[in-house]
């Protein structure tokens, strides 16, 4: 529902209701013993407004059954949503202008140990950011692994490719995948199948469309490059690894300042480990750099990891300046990223204050030398909107609970995930 499929669901439910009850099966077997009335059961782990709305659409004369709560159990939402015990969580505080090279360094580090990390999922806040990073990291002359079916090869032609920058001597062939809600369902299915079946080290760059409802086996590492919009979404993201008793790792990228307070939320689930971004750069950039595309900045050998990080950042910036298509992807990714930043849930928005973002440094994380025009004014409008919203929220608290529920339900159903190309 919250991904914009309400109208499709309405059509499907309406079509099912209009279908006549079959008297015989396809093979001619009589169906007289079957009940004449269809019974629909809707099961959900949570009873949020979108689930309630789906029930109103699909159920008639419904009876609500809830699992009995353990009186001794914890009722706090953050306590209920806990990460698996076998999951090792860590976080790294990275200056905005070093995020891109730190991500590359971390991937190079984990792929430098043969067999240690085979499958990595990177979560980003919006589809435009996914598209930009996929195009930046994929090898220009790379090819996708052979698909089981010719049709799947066509479907994954633009979503699966060999990776550049993140490879190592131990893992010279890393496969890159991208997936988000703006891709068609057949393309998403084929891409997911390719990622799951890939025998080489592989990376899936995706949005929250991959955070739940998918069975992706043997994921070794989850990287939350952009923090989740809610703590519950964070639990779903990191839950892609450490499944079925297997150990797993999750790394969360945070900015210095207000975002550091988000670590306290992590501690309610498990005790996270702090990583130094300098150690990530040092471990990931120890080997000689190799750039798949020639620019005026050459890979440096024997220099410090600081110099290598600077060379890589300059290379990315020069590559975008020489490639108009990728430059547009970077600008679109940056704009959507900034807009998506303002959509964190109200309870956690104190850690993600849009007005505290340094737009110039944030642009650096997309390989841009300066923020695209017009973004600054948008941030100011968002700030004013946030102040006005705070006043409205205060007023809403004085309204009867029934009115608040109905209001929030209407707001939720009007909101679609593609407003900022999220999902």
From TrEMBL:
A cellular component term, taken from the record's GO annotations: nucleolus
Top-level taxon of origin: Eukaryota
GO molecular function list: ATP binding; hydrolase activity; RNA binding; RNA helicase activity
Main location: nucleus
Location of the region described as Disordered in the Swiss-Prot/TrEMBL record: 373-406
Database matches in SMART domains: DUF4217, HELICc
Domain Helicase C-terminal span(s) in chain numbering: 102-297
Keyword rRNA processing included in the entry's annotation: yes
Gene Ontology terms: biological process: rRNA processing
The protein, known as: ATP-dependent RNA helicase
């Amino acid at each position: 529902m919250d991904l914009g499929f309400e109208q499709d669901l309405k059509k499907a439910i309406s079509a099912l209701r209009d279908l006549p009850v079959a008297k015989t099966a396809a093979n001619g077997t009589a169906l007289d013993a079957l009940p004449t009335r269809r019974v629909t059961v809707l099961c959900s782990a949570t009873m949020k407004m979108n689930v309630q709305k789906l029930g109103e659409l699909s159920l008639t004369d419904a009876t609500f059954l809830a699992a009995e709560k353990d009186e001794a159990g914890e009722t706090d939402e953050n306590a209920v949503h806990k990460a698996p015990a076998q999951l090792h969580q860590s976080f790294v505080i990275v200056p905005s202008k070093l995020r891109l090279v730190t991500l590359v360094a971390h991937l190079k580090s984990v792929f430098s140990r043969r067999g240690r990390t085979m499958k990595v999922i990177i979560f980003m806040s919006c589809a435009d950011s996914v598209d930009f990073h996929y195009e930046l990291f994929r090898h220009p002359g790379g090819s996708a692994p052979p698909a089981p079916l010719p049709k799947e090869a066509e479907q994954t032609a633009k979503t699966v490719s060999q990776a550049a920058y993140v490879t190592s001597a131990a893992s010279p062939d890393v496969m890159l995948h991208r997936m988000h809600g703006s891709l068609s369902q057949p393309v998403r299915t084929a891409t997911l199948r390719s990622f799951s079946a890939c025998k080489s080290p592989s990376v899936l760059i995706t949005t929250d469309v991959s955070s739940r409802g998918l069975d992706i086996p043997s994921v070794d590492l989850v990287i939350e490059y952009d923090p989740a919009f809610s703590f519950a979404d964070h639990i779903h993201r990191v839950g892609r690894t450490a499944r079925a008793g297997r150990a797993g790792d999750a790394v969360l990228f945070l900015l210095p300042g207000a975002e550091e307070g988000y670590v306290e939320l992590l501690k309610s689930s498990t005790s996270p480990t702090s990583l130094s971004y300098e150690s990530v750069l040092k471990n990931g950039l120890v080997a000689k750099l190799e750039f798949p595309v020639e620019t005026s900045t050459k890979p440096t050998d024997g220099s410090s990891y600081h110099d290598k990080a600077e060379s890589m950042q300059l290379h990315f910036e020069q590559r975008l300046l020489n490639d108009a298509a990728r430059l547009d992807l970077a600008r679109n990714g940056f704009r959507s990223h900034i807009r998506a930043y303002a959509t964190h849930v109200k309870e956690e928005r104190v850690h993600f204050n849009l007005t505290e973002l340094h737009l110039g440094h944030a642009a650096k994380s997309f390989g841009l030398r300066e923020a695209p025009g017009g973004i600054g004014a948008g941030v100011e409008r968002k700030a004013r909107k946030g102040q006005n919203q705070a006043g409205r929220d205060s007023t809403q608290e004085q309204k009867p609970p029934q009115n608040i529920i109905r209001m929030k339900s209407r707001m939720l159903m009007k909101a679609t995930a593609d407003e900022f190309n999220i999902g």
